[in-house]
Amino acid sequence: MTAPQPDLVCRDLTKTYDAFRAVDHVSFDVPQGSFFSILGPSGCGKTTLLRMIAGFQSPTSGDLLIKGKSMIGVPPNKRPVSMVFQHLALFPTMNIGENVGFGLRQRRVPKAEITSRVGQVLDRVGLPDVSARRVDQLSGGQKQRVAIARCMVLEPDVLLLDEPLGALDLKLREHMKVELKSLQAAFNTTFVYITHDQSEALVMSDNIAVMNNGRFEQIGTPHDVYHAPDTAFVAGFVGDANKFHAKISAVNGSQLTLETPAGEPIKVEAPNPNLSVGQDAVVFLRPEAIALATSDIGDTVNGSRGEVESVLFNGANSTVTVRGGQGDIIKVALPQTGDFGTLRKGDTVFTRWDPKKARCYPAPKG
Amino acid sequence: MKHSLVSLFAVVAVLGAQGVQAETLRLLTWGGYAPEEVIAMFEAETGHTVEVTTSNNEEMIAKLRATNGGGFDLAQPSQDRITSAQEEFGIYKPIDMSRVTADLFIPSMLSATAANTTYEGEVYGLPHVWGTSGLVVNTAMAGEVTDYTDLCDPSLTGKVSYRLKRPTLIGFAYSMGLDPFAAYGDTDAYQGILDEVEAMLTECKAIVRTYWDGGDEIKNLLRSGEVVASMAWDTGGWQLNADNPDITFVAPEAGALGWIDTFVLPARGRADDAAYDWINFVMQPEIAAMITNTAGNFTAAVDGDAGVSADLKARYQGSFDQAAIDNIKWYPPVPAGLEALEGATLDRINAAN
Amino acid sequence: MASDTSRLGFYLLLAPILLWLVVLIILPHIGLFVVSISEKIGPREYETGFGNYATFFGEPLYWRTFARTAIMSIAATALTLILGFPIAYYIAKLTRGRTKTTLFLMCMIPFWVSELVRTFGWMILLRETGVLSNFLQYLGLVNGPVEMLYNDAAIMVGLVYTSILFMVVPLVTTLDSLDDSLIEAGYDLGGSSAAVMREIVIPHAMPGIVSGCIVVFMLSLGNYLTPILLGGKDSLWFTGMIYTQFITRFNWELGSAFGFLLLALSSLVVFLGLKLSGRSLSETMGRS
Question: Are C152 and C71 within 8 A, CB to CB?
Fold first, then answer.
């Protein structure tokens, strides 16, 4: 028995505009029924990639297969994909029912069947009885669900989503993340979701591709991408991280010793074979990987003494910034035990971190 | 000697008037009747300023009717359009003959115009420029056209043009052996003539290329050769003759239709002094000749043809021998209401297929 | 006190528009109507009645010309829409930046000269000894000179040319406001080009289409120069009839009646157009 065929396959997909390469030899598979996110800063080429999948742009080279069939030269209206646009692109001249039924009308589905299928899909997105309403009578979240229903009623092999949550306010965005994920599970359709918001990607995705300058830096589960970033870019872009520049002074297997410009030693355990003594490196350290104490814990590995620079209270995500002896500032997650409720600016604190929790990469040239 | 004395007197009178008041003369006239240089000379001599508006008979009357005879100080409609317009709309005021230097006018024309423009015992018009309408023919291509009805020869299909206006009705009537001017006073007789002309022109419709509207339009059509014979004004024919010797004005056998453009005072004109000054100024022989040279038509000024260019005189004499001059049908005053009959006839011709 | 002052200010601000409406629009129309219901019975003698309107309905030439003018104006409007829509779509949707501005300007260039000059331009092109006729002969497509002037087709060409800008401008404005993603969404959901045009682009452009059509229809109906200069012996136009009545016939009474009938006709056609497209006048004028 062979492995099930992936819904979407890209092979060396490249898009070049004059001298600028927007998408640079991108290859990936998206298995059936999974939620795949492409995460990257604006201008990284993710929108171009999505538009090539939808068929609005044609690749300069490479191949694109949906359910095993090449889509090169297939116009967008003949592809088994549907797209939820950034601003949803609901047709303002039609009511909700006509919007959702648009695709079925194009397929010449009989009128009665359109009505029943539109009713069913609106039920499934939790919006029964809105068929007769105008688009501008719905709230932002309802429009979102209508836009998804309009695509899902066509039962596409792949649903493309172009940052559809960008226009929503924070509260609704948080809510819609959960809802999108559950809709995806309910429809069991392959979703390809592009975003520049790492939390959206982390919360919803089965797999995330982190994209930068037209290339995929890493493809992996949210856990991998967060905890085991392959490259300095991924480590810096996904999640919060403190970033130090240092020179490698000793290599002992995966045990590295580095020295900061201020001469302070750092120990890092990183399974990165491309590092050698004397090389410049960058070290990334998550704020939650740093332990905080108010009393001296003695001379431990990667321990130091500092002074509270500021307390940033944000509920469960509260942090403090600590100024070290050399004037360097690090961000530390505030444990939620309540022990640090009295921490004030100027207090002396002690920090330490496990060498295994940090990641070390060669510093970029230049 | 007598003339120079008269003009000297006129100049003195004018200078005297200038001493009283300089005015703005708002002149409603035809293109070419008030050349720039004449205006400059007049302004220098009298101190008045002149504002010229060019127009045609119908628009002149319409403009004056709209303002009940205001807005202009001197107008120049044709003599046949004065009494009926005065009767219906009261847009003119009588001429004060004591302020006109009568010696400047050819006496026969002055008295004929006075007779034609008398309404309720008052004279309303003075003659200025006269001319005719007849045929302009490209003699190389349609030499056989010598009368209005010749325009309807099937061999000229698509090559002839005329206006769908009252002169066409009258010209055709004469050409058909009728006498429309004699029937002016008799509505029934006139209607009978119109009916005959209507039948003729309806039949002729297939021959006509287009009904022309403006003087420039018909000149273009003749110049390009798209039209080889047309009813038109004598000046148009003479202007084309200067460019193409084949084209010239032909006085029709039935007689050219003679018109005289006049001076009239609009009822609510404000600058009568300037208006009389202008009349007396432009009727001087040398000024009249200047106007003839630009307008192309001769004036009612005594000795006004002395200074006219030899070319124009030659063309005039080429078109009119003495018999043709004697045969000119001068438009008598149009009785009020006649235009309504003509309008209905023209409408029917227009609608016919 | 304060409210008195602000009310005074309100009326002061309102005064110019009211003055404009009353002096330039309402009063002349009242005057026109009064003239149209006076029948002439002799020199300087008139009596009130609807005789002039009766004359209109009694004379086939008048109402046939009236109907002909209406039908040709509607045809010219439809033709202008058919020609103007692709132009507007191209400008609004398929060009960007400088090209867009340049194309838009090129549409306007003919309007920098007067209508008379434009019409003369067409006469030079279409006449028998004109550019087009000579070009066709040069190509060997025709044997002799062809006359393209003095017929209804020439009037149509002139009317469409004269009014196309007034169709293109509102269309470009409304099409510009159509989000490209709506068109893409239409294709994405399986729509063919025709379906996207019919179901998405045209409904969106409807306010522009309706207001463009209204303007073009009014311009065509009220055009005087183009039909007179380009039309032939049988090409009558109602404005020409009004001119004739006013100027050559000195019959202001009948001319005024004609003018009022033309006003009624254009109001009626605009009303029917709005009814058919299911829009209100305020909505159409407000949104485009």
Answer: no
Backbone conformation region of residue C88, classed left if phi is above 0, alpha if psi is from -120 to 50, else beta: alpha
Are the C-beta atoms of C191 and A77 separated by less than 8 Å? Answer: yes
> What is B2-130+259-315's CATH number?
3.40.190.10
Residue type, C268: L
CATH 3.40.190.10 domain residues, chain B: 2-130+259-315, 133-257+332-351
Radius of gyration of chain C, Cα coordinates, nearest whole angstrom? 23
Q: pLDDT tens digits, residue range B80-139?
A: 889 988 988 899 999 999 999 999 999 999 999 999 999 999 999 999 999 999 999 999
**Per residue in A70-125, pLDDT tens?**
999 999 999 999 999 988 999 999 999 999 999 999 999 999 999 999 999 999 88
State whether A76 and C188 contact (CB < 8 Å).
Answer: yes
Q: Tell me the CATH number for domain A240-362.
A: 2.40.50.140
Amino acid at C92: A
For residue B31, give the 3-state DSSP assignment: coil
Q: Which positions in chain B touch C28 (Cβ < 8 Å)? A: none
CA atoms of B104 and B300, how far apart (whole Å): 8
Q: Give A15's strand partners.
A: A23
Mean pLDDT, chain B, integer: 89
The beta-carbon neighbor of B226 closest among C65, C129, C232 is C129
Residues near A3 by beta carbon (within 8 Å), at least 6 away in sequence? none
pLDDT surpassing 50 at residue C200: yes
**B348 min Cα distance to partner chain C (Å):** 7
**Chains sharing 3 or more CB pairs under 8 A with chain A:** C
As given in the structure block, the two tokens for residue C169 are 């401008």
* CB < 8 Å to B165, chain C: 248
User: Would you call A4 exposed, middle or buried from its count of C-beta atoms within 10 A (0-12, 13-18, 19+)?
Assistant: exposed
Beta strand extents in B181-285 (DSSP E only): 208-211, 229-233, 247-250, 257-263, 265-266
Q: If one looks up domain B133-257+332-351 in CATH, what number appears? A: 3.40.190.10
Q: How far apart are CA A357 and CA A289, in angstroms?
A: 6
pLDDT of B25-70, one tens digit each? 999 999 889 999 999 999 999 999 999 999 988 889 999 998 999 9
**Percent over 70 (pLDDT), chain A:** 98
The alpha carbon of residue A323 is apart from the nearest alpha carbon of chain C, in Å, by 49
Ranges assigned E (strand) in B55-91? 74-75
Question: How far is it, in rounded angstroms, from Cα A143 to Cα A96?
Answer: 9
Beta bridge mates, B118: B123
In this structure, are residues B312 and B242 in contact, taking their beta carbons and an 8 Å threshold?
Answer: no
Domain C66-287, second-level architecture = Orthogonal Bundle (1.10)
The maximal CA–CA distance of chain C, rounded, in angstroms, is 85
Q: Cα distance from B66 to chain C (closest Cα, Å)?
A: 10
Contact flag C246-B59 (C-beta cutoff 8 Å): no
For tokens 């002690």, what's the residue?
A350
* The pair of three-digit structure tokens given for residue A211, joined into one six-digit string: 């994209």
- Check if C137 contacts B (Cβ < 8 Å): no
Rounded Cα distance between B307 and B311, Å, is: 12
* C43, C147, C252: residue with CB nearest B336: C43
Partner residue opposite C187 with nearest CB, options A77, A86, A150:
A77
Alpha helices in chain C (DSSP H): 2-19, 27-36, 51-58, 60-89, 97-108, 115-126, 131-139, 152-176, 180-188, 193-196, 202-221, 225-230, 238-243, 252-277, 281-287
Show me where the domains of chain A are located. Answer: 8-236, 240-362
Of the listed ranges A212-226, A352-366, C8-22, the least confidently predicted one is A352-366
C120 CB within 8 Å of a chain B CB: no
Q: In whole angstroms, what is the distance from residue B170 CA to residue B164 CA?
A: 11
Q: What is the pTM of this model?
A: 0.81
